[in-house]
Amino acid sequence: MGSRPGVVVGAVVVVALPEVLRTVQEYRGLIFALLLIVIILVRPQGVWPARFRPLTLPDLAPEPERRTAEGRLLEITGLSRRFGGVTAVEDLDLTLDAGEVISVIGPNGAGKTTAFNCITGMIVPSTGTVAVNGHDVAGRAPHRVAAAGLARTFQNIRLFDDMTVAENVLIGRFARDRGLLRRLGARDLEAVRRCLDFVGLSDAATRSASALSYGERRRLEIARALAADPAVILLDEPAAGANPTEKQALMGLIAQIRALGIAVVLIEHDVALVMSVSDRVTVLEYGRTIAAGPPADIQEDQRVIAAYLGVPDDPETDLVAEVLG
Ligand SMILES: Nc1ncnc2c1ncn2[C@@H]1O[C@H](COP(=O)(O)OP(=O)(O)OP(=O)(O)O)[C@@H](O)[C@H]1O
What we know:
The model has no long low-confidence stretch (mean pLDDT 84). The protein has helices spanning 4-20, 28-42, 112-120, 142-148, 165-173, 186-199, 214-226, 244-259, 271-277, 295-300, 302-309, 315-324, and strands at 72-83, 86-97, 101-105, 127-132, 135-136, 150-152, 232-236, 263-267, 280-285, 288-293.
């Protein structure tokens, strides 16, 4: 998608430069190499400023989304991951049906991120099975897991800051197929429009992702994940750094996502939020599941209370103590 003048200038340079350097024949290769290094260091984005056509999104009447899948969407059995002598996750079982929200909580270092990374293919589990939408994906590469119907957001927001909001969402459309080998179609643009509407970012479509507020960036990550039409979505600490208003909006968004029939797995330190949005909660400590069940049972569970209260002077512990009463 480079600009036409840029291509012409590049062609002239490639054809003319050898002629110009004819007099210094033996140093030609060296001069070329030096030029290349200088360009890579000084203008990694290219010598000629590229101009991209902004995406034109269609105006769509809001319509209720279809349920993307039904039944058992995520089934994890006996998942373990060891790092040398450390067992980060041990024998984790998790099942999730369409439209359910399940949260994985636990003190720092409990194994939540490692579990997420095993499920999404970022790291290979030592043992265990992971089935997404009926497809066995344990140990598969992240793009294969995505193709089975799993999308995720990241604890540390990972957006393409030099792209627009709409372009960031569009990338999500290519997560499930052969990526850039596929041509952009009208359905992709419609999906981008719907996802932006869904998270309330339609008006920001042409803005740079870097210009968004923190809460908006979190919502953009969710829109990008939804653009892949996932059966299961994993949200990694979506409320981290959010203010109370943003947390309230996030709870509404999670409820909307589940209404689409998408299964949601949440890692979250905000225990109050977890207790209010989850159907079930799994609590990890030192990689092991110490409790699993509906929020009301978890709140009463003595092992959970002890696991959190066993960490003095930890702000998370104080919050959990408050929520668990
Ligand atoms: N790549 C790794 N190599 C060695 N040990 C690791 C690695 N990744 C995680 N661990 C260890 O595994 C354990 C679980 O870590 P993990 O990051 O999964 O916990 P967590 O519950 O996500 O913590 P947090 O809430 O702080 O993000 C910790 O003891 C950690 O030190």
